């Protein structure tokens, strides 16, 4: 299925886009890579546990950050963050779900990446589940100090912070923050630059219920990713929700001034961006883990779709034509497509072998009675290929642990360079491990070399209740 032609959304102007305060003068985006919180050139691993009990409050939520080292995440130097942490705004309350969504960028351009944490269950004033987002600042010693990200339009939206991403969405050189929620104003943009104190700059809110293919406001914007899809210096938003009046996945790409026009790609629940074929254009991978009986855009056992980018006006290169779908029934993809595998529940792009092409990790947490699996497909000059494709489970030699029903290994996956060797490493979450405690696996360059795993207690998260460590994962 090709992308639909971009459509001007006149109705959004009447009923959805709300300009706010004036923007501040532009300045250059800082050099720190996302998730490099201490500026050492290694990506750090941020792990959300929104089901964590904090101070006796069930599902208050927590985030543990494990700093990168030459041998991968070093659990001896983790930073635990909750709303009871000194300097973090608010207080831990039952159901806040702090850590439901994560994002990172060098927001204040000081050379250290900062962390954004969503707590969509936070009650704001008299607004139940109004939601909030916290910025935690990076520095030479790692993360410390925080402030609440402004919500410019809280009155007709809830669960602010259930989805997060960052990018330069207005092309002014500053990093901006995009926030998903529910209700009428389900997508918000907070414009940079950012500072540790003082007023925030401008922003806008959008009602995607008025888009050409309307989003259902009850579910809202459930997931966001971003990248320079048009290769024009401005980042596009990849927006995930559900079609109005149905349970069907709906995914749109907002280019430039996202509130005014959208393009639609195959529907899915998650996405990742990167250059799979090395042509200099950012590609989008959309994961849809559902069966066709539940979602027409799904497939038996789930699927992923690569939408190849181009430089000018469309988010797909029509000359090389490309939306290519992969399932476990695709020749060369390990495994067999079976109902409930949830192939595509987690997706992440990164260059695991240093050849200049983005490779793809795909989580299948429903595989083998929900024991779970991760599939690695490699990028090439001809795009994503199944040559040398690999499957990793807890039954794979060298992977710690053992595959057990309900572990849900691969529910979330991240490819990022935590060792500073120029190759992306695989972090995978098994959110059902140990009856819902959750656990994280790290595999250098997506191989079993030096593999390690750890659970909540190792990184300071309480095992009371079901913390589901790794329900959100960033690196």
TrEMBL record:
It comes from the Bacteria. The keyword Glycoprotein applies. It holds the Pfam family FG-GAP. PROSITE patterns: FG_GAP. Residues 1-28 form the signal peptide. InterPro entries: FG-GAP (IPR013517), Int_alpha_beta-p (IPR013519), Integrin_alpha (IPR000413), Integrin_alpha_N (IPR028994). Keywords: Glycoprotein, Hydrolase, Repeat, Signal. This is FG-GAP repeat protein. It comes from Streptomyces ossamyceticus.
């Amino acid at each position: 299925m090709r992308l639909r032609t971009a459509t001007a959304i006149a109705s959004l102007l009447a009923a959805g886009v709300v300009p706010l305060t004036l923007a501040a003068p532009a300045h250059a985006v800082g050099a720190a890579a996302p998730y490099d919180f201490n500026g050492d050139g290694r990506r750090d691993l941020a792990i959300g546990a929104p089901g964590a009990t904090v101070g006796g409050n069930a599902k208050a939520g927590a985030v543990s950050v494990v700093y990168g080292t030459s041998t991968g995440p070093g659990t001896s130097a983790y930073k635990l963050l909750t709303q009871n942490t000194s300097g973090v705004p608010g207080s831990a309350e039952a159901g806040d779900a702090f850590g439901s969504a994560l994002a990172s960028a060098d927001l204040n351009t000081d050379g250290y990446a900062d962390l954004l944490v969503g707590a969509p269950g936070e009650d704001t004033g008299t607004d139940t589940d109004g939601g909030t987002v916290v910025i935690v600042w990076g520095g030479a010693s790692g993360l410390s100090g925080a402030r609440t990200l402004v919500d410019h339009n809280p009155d007709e939206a809830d669960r602010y912070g259930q989805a997060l991403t960052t990018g330069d969405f207005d092309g002014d050189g500053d990093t901006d923050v995009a926030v998903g929620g529910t209700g009428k104003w389900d997508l918000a943009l907070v414009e940079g630059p950012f500072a540790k104190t003082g007023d925030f700059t401008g922003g806008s809110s959008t009602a995607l219920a008025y888009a050409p293919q309307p989003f259902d406001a009850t579910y809202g914007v459930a997931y966001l990713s971003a990248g320079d899809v048009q290769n024009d210096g401005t980042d596009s938003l990849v927006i995930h929700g559900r079609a109005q009046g149905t349970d069907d996945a709906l995914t749109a790409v907002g280019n430039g001034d996202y509130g005014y026009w959208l393009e639609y790609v195959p529907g899915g629940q998650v996405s990742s961006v990167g250059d799979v074929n090395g042509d200099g254009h950012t590609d989008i991978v959309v994961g849809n883990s559902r069966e066709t009986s539940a979602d027409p855009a799904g497939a038996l056992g789930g699927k992923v779709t690569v939408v190849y980018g181009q430089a000018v006006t469309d988010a797909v290169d029509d000359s090389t034509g490309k939306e290519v779908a992969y399932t476990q029934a695709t020749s060369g993809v390990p495994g067999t497509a079976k109902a409930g595998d949830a192939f595509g529940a987690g997706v992440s792009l990164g260059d695991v072998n240093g050849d200049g092409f983005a490779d793809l990790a795909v989580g299948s947490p429903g595989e083998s009675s929900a024991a779970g699996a991760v599939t690695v497909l490699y990028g090439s000059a001809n795009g994503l290929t199944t040559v040398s494709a690999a499957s990793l489970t807890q039954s794979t030699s060298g992977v710690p642990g053992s595959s057990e029903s309900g572990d849900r290994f691969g529910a979330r996956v991240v490819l990022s360079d935590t060792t500073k060797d120029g190759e992306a490493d695989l972090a995978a979450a098994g959110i059902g491990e140990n009856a819902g405690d959750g656990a994280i696996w790290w595999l250098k360059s997506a191989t079993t070399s030096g593999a390690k795993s750890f659970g909540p207690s190792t990184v300071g998260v309480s095992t009371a209740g079901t913390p589901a460590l790794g329900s959100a994962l960033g690196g």
